[in-house]
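Deliverable D5.2: sample structural annotation.
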Amino acid sequence: MRIVLQRVTSASVKVDGEVTGSIGTGYLVLLGVGQGDTEEDCRRLADKIINLRIFSDENDKINLSLSDVDGDLLVVSQFTLYADCRKGNRPNFIQAGKPDEAERLYNYFTDYCRSKGKHVETGIFGADMKVELVNDGPFTIVLE
């Protein structure tokens, strides 16, 4: 499982011109599911994201978690995180999870985050999505 995590002051995703998810302060989570990923991977990464201390405190130190700032999550599926560009000029996606299993784990991830008390917005799995964000910092982290 691969995640590109962006700390944002706002983010939204549209499908066919309609907003399917929108948040204020929080994280835009671009989530790629790979072959062999499990529910345990989902739980481990979700817990890491929820508890990661990358928001500034009153002394401008990066010391607060998503929960500390009452932040939200916008989770967008992105199989292209598994692009392999080592050969030629056209990426292959052989390491990306099969669509049915990837969708199941994407839904498991979002449901798990909700079970931890987080407000979660989403895109639509497999759709052509337009993502807008205001990256706060900018602050971007890659997690596996």
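Annotation notes: The longest helix spans residues 99-115. The two ends are 6 Å apart (CA to CA).
The annotation will be released with the project's public dataset once the embargo ends.
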